Each structure stands twice: as C-alpha cells, then as structure tokens.
Amino acid sequence: xxxxxxxxxxxxxxxxxxxxxxxxxxxxxxxxxxxxxxxxxxxxxxxxxxxxxxxxxxxxxxxxxxxxxxxxxxxxxxxxxxxxxxxxxxxxxxxxxxxxxxxxxxxxxxxxxxxxxxxxxxxxxxxxxxxxxxxxxxxxxxxxxxxxxxxxxxxxxxxxxxxxxxxxxxxxxxxxxxxxxxxxxxxxxxxxxxxxxxxxxxxxxxxxxxxxxxxxxxxxxxxxxxxxxxxxxxxxxx
Length: 238
Known about the structure:
Layout: H1 3-10, E1 18-20, E2 23-30, E3 33-40, H2 48-64, E4 70-76, H3 83-87, H4 90-106, E5 111-120, H5 121-125, E6 133-136, E7 141-143, H6 147-154, H7 158-167, H8 175-181, E8 186-187, H9 192-202, H10 209-215, H11 222-231
Parallel strand pairs: 3-4, 4-5, 5-6, 5-7, 6-8
Antiparallel strand pairs: 1-2, 2-3
C-alpha cells in the first residue's frame, strides 16, 4: 500500500502529510485530537539525513506540542550501507533517533509505530520497534535479519535456520511471528482509522513487549528473566 492511500484510510477527515526525499511529515486529527506524523516511504534506507530529519521532527513535537501523540509510518529496507554513512558514524545517528523516541515517551507522548510496507534491521529497531506500541498491516514485510544473512553471520547452515524458523518465531520473518514475540501489539486488517483511534486510547506507559511475547508463546524467557532481575528471585522454567 502506498503512503497516500494509507493516510487516506487512517485519516478520513484529511491530513497535511507531505513527502520530501522519501521522508514523511505532517499532522492529522484522530477523534478530534491532533496527531503528528513522521515516517518513510519507497523502501528508503535510513541514512544520516533521514535519521536526523525524523529525530528533529520528534524533538519539535516534544518542544512545541507537549503530550501530542506521534505516529511513525514505517517503510524502510533498513540502515543505509554506504562507506560515507559508516565513516560519519551512522550508528550514532541511529542511536540519537532511538533516544528521541524514548525521550518523547518519557515526556508523556504516546508513540505509535505502523509498519505498512517494509521494516528491516536498524531502520525498524530505532523507530517502530521502540515506540509505545507497534502495529503492522498483514502484507507488511518485517525482519531484522534475513535467513541468508543470518546463516553467513552465525555460520549455521541456512537449511537448519529454515527448520528452526518453522517452530521458533525468533528465526522467522513476517508480522505474524513478530506478533507472537510481542514485537507487534497487533495486525490491522480493516478500519485503519478505528484501529488507530483505539490504539491511542488504550496504549499505556508501560512497555508490554516481553509480557506479550511470553503470553503468546513466542518469547518465553525474556519476561521471567526480567522479573527475576527486578525482584532478585530465581528463574523458574515454564
């Protein structure tokens, strides 16, 4: 789905979102409440320019519109792999973007991520994946690392990783697997405007990802380990 069609379905009352060099920004109304919108399109890789543009937009909202919700529309092939970006310290730019999202959440802004096309690697981790809540459309492509790349890095044969992916969502791409792991709070299929309004109403301040992954059977140790660290108790096998 292209971003214009998506925006029309999310905001039937209209919006002022614009695109510049694959960077989206603007605002709209959801249930008579103003929402600031940032995002990417065209499967654009996140280089230093877009990372800074997104960070700047988030900080502007924090400064000028205290408490206003932020919607991040995600369509990216991940971190831009260029020598120039690496030499300029793309990791620091990405970390800065992630810190801005975290700052907005700490300042009381509800930040909703919506993967409407592609969400790969660092471009997803520092945006939608660390929002207050993240959702996806059913046709979205989501993965932090593809199985061929994972095989090269881990030295585990791709055939073996494919076998593991059948039962373990950690190894498998796709919105359904990220839903099982708790990385996604839900998959939106119909009435996108209603789903967004509901997400803004129901989103709390606490990060529920580990608990959701445990409850859905996709990530069984993160939540009990975190609870054990918090309370000083032992981790008991499920």
